[in-house]
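Re: your question from the hallway

Yes, I did run it. Sequences:
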Amino acid sequence: MSLSSTLLENAVDQLATLPGIGRRTAMRLALELLRREPQEVIRFSEAIRRMRDEVRFCDTCCNISDEPRCSICRDPNRDPSLVCVVEDIRDVIAIENTRQFKGQYHVLGGVISPMDGIGPEDLNTRQLMQRVEEGDIGEVILALGTTLEGDTTGFYLNRKLTGSKVRVTMLARGLSVGGDLDQADELTLGRSIADRKPYEQLAKR
Amino acid sequence: MSLSSTLLENAVDQLATLPGIGRRTAMRLALELLRREPQEVIRFSEAIRRMRDEVRFCDTCCNISDEPRCSICRDPNRDPSLVCVVEDIRDVIAIENTRQFKGQYHVLGGVISPMDGIGPEDLNTRQLMQRVEEGDIGEVILALGTTLEGDTTGFYLNRKLTGSKVRVTMLARGLSVGGDLDQADELTLGRSIADRKPYEQLAKR
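Structure:
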């Protein structure tokens, strides 16, 4: 695709580097941006540039933050002895949306994935160990995805934490709430049978 | 969705203004941009800002261009007496990719759409009339989409051009090349019967 304008071509090339955006979509986005007021487009490009230049990571939990410590770690109403380990900020948002968790987080910044060349040293595991050694953490919840990579990362962290005084837990696996049995996959259904619990314990919630 | 960083939130908000990109996708794109080198992200945001600030439109055909006249209008090998009227630059690219057309273009910048409040005066129709009056244009090809808006625009332009010395033509409608009859919609198939041509005229190509 050769365009009549190098400026447009550069913008399309750049937009097409984003994941899930091909050249056709990039072209559509570029033409939409061209239709906007110049001031609006400046706001658009500045928001992206400033995010990359000025964003920092929380010194404690490695979450994305505008300040040295993020708003969650600064919050005096949250329990610092309970730390939930997650892959990235999207998981923090998902858990916050449940309004069920009043502890703090630790954001790994990814999961162990030998296929992609990502090992434990590429994640914020060192900072987690430091928090465990220094602080008064009583429980570490491994809230990782139920994928091969998530499981590998959980296995690694559990082994590293064995021997320290913290309790290591992981999220329950079982049927989705509101889901029928025939819609659950075999692994999940099998797991929910193996992990069955006394009726009184589950049904009262 | 409340985030721990206003900078990230602004970038997500801006990305989510793009057509077809919701807040979840915008979040994914923002996190991907955060993972890149700062220099790369500066190139990204600069390419978009510069496009909007510096791009201009060809004085002749209203196509997007970096210079007062676009590369197609400047090309001495192209026939200025044959002008293909299209909606936007994507159509120019599509027709150029066929390598079948050696004339020039006229880019309307949209189609007449009363529902969206777009009338003929919002398009580059005045410039087209001026080209017809001034120049040595022999034929105007209406290469518009086969939608209600495209048809309305073609109807309007044909009426404006009736009385001038130019010949007005439109793209042929019929079966897609490589398509089976049972895959064509009824309107297209009906049209291809009504517009049937002598075998010798079509089959020899």
